[in-house]
Specification:
alpha/beta, Alkaline Phosphatase, subunit A, 3 domains, eight-stranded mixed beta sheet, 19 helices, 12 strands, 38% helix
């Protein structure tokens, strides 16, 4: 059983982490019902340790990845959201791997995790090319697998050097109006199966730790005022975690199920410990080395793991200058979830697996042993700015805005109804309303609102006066500071300015497409609850050329 530990220093096994959004624990049951010929997870189940009670430290993918790479909770590594940055004082697993002669790579399949998070440090390759794709927001796992093998071939990973590599995929998080979650999961599972077969074909399977983990669960319950980033109930925080250990030729694969409650923070710390000596840590929220669980059956050690609290948090993406946190604490058989009044709802995770009954008002529930952890979390929250009454009203408007954008991309039959009532120049959907209005008649009240918006835009733009002139000169163009409008003038007045008509028409078309793609990205971002931090609430998103250029809505 312990062969893998004794061989670690001799052969330096590689480490491959496959981190997936929306992979909850109950999606990976490791039963015999799945088709083994197509299921990568079934293949992995037969050769891995599966932790059934593994929890993410944050509902935000970037924060959870920060914990996987540092072995610290977000409150320490400070990467709370996709638009925050990792504390530079943190030691990443990538650095530890580099110090041990590993080649390192990270393949990001979603804008949730980009270089700007600071997670890219010490990776030889950090591929976040998905950020430059104007219309795709979830990279196909097959493409990521291809990039991984190309990198291995170039770097000598697995042959000349051991490798530490992370593949982050967000296919299961795709906004879709045609594909149900289960079919998307089955397709991804088939891709994992082929990827594992390719690892075996390349001789990389046996001497590699293969870790498949969910960064967050599946927000399937319709809980009031909670979404995928704010729901701290177990269905959204209990994630799949499978670890395949390296093995010697001829050894049978290890197939264990472990029901101890762990955190992805523990997993990050454990990956550190695979590459270096790890000191014991004594903290209020203890972080454990999972290797100790594999190596010992000491009942006292196991009891420490069972009794310790596990911390989970969510961080607001509300467009303000502060970060508001909410916390969940898993302790003993309870889930303590902080509500908006900074009080804790209490759910018994043994007798109420769906966490529907709040026990906080039941005096017969003895939770005194957990009070030290609850007090600590409340002290953390009090350091953040509280939501004022004005901010609370803005938050309600913001939640409505995000809901409108989510429904637009996921409920195709409601698009027409949504667009009939959307005339807000701060909402990206307003572009699609005007696009619809260019082809068919809209209500008089909506048309009147757009006339008002049009007049305000035309009056505030310095380029409009140039557009109505019969001829303009290059000196006149100095008045125009709007780049898209300036390119429109260069195209429409190309003959006056002695410029190439075709060239400037093409440049204008490219810039116009970029503008449309940006509106599309802003809308998708809002559908994801401003997860990428692109919305600030003050920008007017409509461009005056929408009302001037009759071809603006042409594809």
């Amino acid at each position: 059983m312990l062969t893998w530990t004794s061989c670690q220093k001799k052969t330096q096994p590689s480490v491959l982490v496959i981190a997936l959004d929306k992979l909850s624990s109950d999606m990976v049951t490791c039963t015999d019902e799945t088709n083994d010929e197509k299921s990568g997870l079934s293949l992995l189940c037969k050769q891995s340790i599966r932790f059934t009670h593994s929890f993410t430290p944050s509902t935000q993918p970037a924060a959870a990845m920060g914990s996987l790479l540092t072995g610290e909770y977000p409150m320490k590594h400070k990467l709370f959201r996709s638009f925050d940055r990792l504390d530079p004082q943190m030691t990443s697993v990538a650095k530890t791997a580099k110090d041990n002669n590993y080649v390192t790579s990270f393949f990001s399949g979603s804008p949730f995790i980009l270089k700007r998070t600071g997670l890219s440090d010490y990776f030889d390759l950090f591929d976040d090319s998905i950020a430059s794709n104007p219309v795709e927001y979830e990279q196909d796992f097959r493409q990521q697998a291809q990039s991984f093998f190309q990198w291995l071939s170039y770097s000598g990973g697995g042959r000349r050097h051991p490798f530490f590599s992370v593949i982050y995929n967000s296919e299961l998080n795709r906004l879709s109006n045609t594909e149900i979650d289960q079919s998307g999961f089955e397709k991804l599972d088939e891709k994992l199966h082929q990827f594992f077969l390719d690892l075996k074909k390349e001789g990389l399977w046996d001497n590699t730790y293969v870790i498949v983990v969910g960064l967050n669960g599946s927000n399937r319950f319709n809980r009031f005022n909670l979404n995928a980033l704010t729901n701290l109930h177990s269905e959204n925080t209990n994630v799949a975690t499978l670890i395949k250990l390296p093995r010697q030729k001829g050894d049978e694969g290890i197939n264990w199920k472990n029901d101890l409650r762990i955190s992805l923070t523990d997993l990050g710390y454990t990956v550190h410990c695979l590459l270096r000596e790890c000191p014991n840590r004594d903290e209020l929220f203890p972080i454990i080395n999972l290797i100790d669980i594999w190596k010992t059956q000491n009942s006292a050690d196991m009891k420490k793991v069972i009794d310790r609290p596990v911390l989970i948090e969510s961080a607001s993406t509300f467009p303000q200058n502060f970060v508001q946190h909410r916390f969940s604490i898993l302790h003993r058989n309870y889930n303590f979830i902080q509500n908006i009044e900074s009080k804790f709802e209490i759910f018994n995770t043994l007798s109420d697996k769906s966490e529907l009954t709040d026990l906080s008002r039941h005096k017969n529930e003895n939770t005194s042993e957990s009070q030290i952890y609850l007090d600590y979390v409340l002290a953390l929250e009090n350091k953040s700015m509280a939501v004022s009454l004005e901010s609370g009203e803005l938050l309600q408007a913001y939640q409505l805005l995000t809901q409108l954008n989510l429904e637009y991309w996921t409920l195709p039959n409601s698009k027409e109804t949504l667009l009939e009532h959307t005339a807000d120049e701060h909402n990206p959907l307003v572009y699609y309303v005007l696009q619809k209005a260019s082809r068919q008649k809209i209500s008089k009240s909506l048309a009147d609102q757009f006339v008002k918006i049009k007049n305000e835009l035309l009056q505030s733009n310095s380029c409009v006066n140039l557009n109505i002139r019969y001829k303009i000169t290059k000196d006149d163009l100095k008045q125009c500071t709007d780049e898209l409008f300036l390119q429109y003038l260069l195209y429409t007045h190309a003959n006056d300015l002695d410029l190439s008509l075709e060239k400037n028409k093409l440049l204008y078309s490219v810039m116009k497409t970029a503008y449309k793609n940006n509106l599309n990205r802003l809308s998708i971002n809002l559908a994801y609850n401003n997860a990428w931090g692109l919305y600030n609430g003050s920008d007017i998103l409509l461009h005056p050329l929408i009302f001037i250029d009759m071809t603006f809505f042409d594809n």
